[in-house]
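WARN no homologs supplied; continuing
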Amino acid sequence: MIDTRAVIVTGMSGAGRSQAAKVLEDVGYFVVDNLPTALIGEVVDRAGTPEGKQAKLAVVVDTRGGVTFEDLDLAVRGLLGRGVRTTVLFMDADDETLIRRFEETRRTHPVPHGSLSERIAYEREAFQDIRGMADIIIDTTRLNVHELRKRLEEAFAEALPERQMRIDVTSFGFKRGVPSVMDLLFDVRFLPNPHWVRELRPLTGLDGPVRAHVLDSDDARLFIEKVIDLLTFLVPRYEAEGKAYLTIGVGCTGGRHRSVAVAEEIGRRLRDQGIDVTVRHRDRSFGTTG
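OK structure emitted
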């Protein structure tokens, strides 16, 4: 039996579906664009590679093909029921960014009626349930094409052993808003803030003195232990339900000191358990607030 991996790419128009499809093609996926949802199962069943190697197929379904939550859910359940490793990738961006992209490219939005902002609002409402079922959500609001390619290559360039979860830990500052894509969120503003120590203020949570200031307290050690205990409980249960990706946010005031140190420590502890972890720091380069 040929091992088949399927990626279903969907999401907001203008959020980067086409770019995602190009990257998937570059890393070895056969890509079918604008496929009616009802044909997903048939196309995947026909996929094959020489010498019985893994078949990797990506299909793009979107507003043009009239995708609905019910049809997509039925297709995904059908694939999983036949043992096809299936990932739903949802591409997103905030409304202001989508409007700017359509105005710059002068493309026509696929929703046929209303102003551009009304069309985007209609599509977002229509995709609300589909976004909720996605395994991976990539918000391209702040990503350039190179950052998007890196994010996609990290997720899809190499197939993981079946049922192994990938975890993305992202530090951030609440002053710049909570990341729009988040499964679990931890607020570490209760920990001592290096911002108020003059010699630590210009450093970040990647520096040893800041790390020690943040983590070398009973509260910090107990907090880390409780977070790891929680994740040790949750991860195998998420995997059992077919969830392949988990996004964790760690926030402090500015996203430069405490959240960075804690995110790095959580990532280190999870790697020690053999879990595939990526740690990102959204706001580390901004300002000096801890």
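The longest helix spans residues 218-240.
OK
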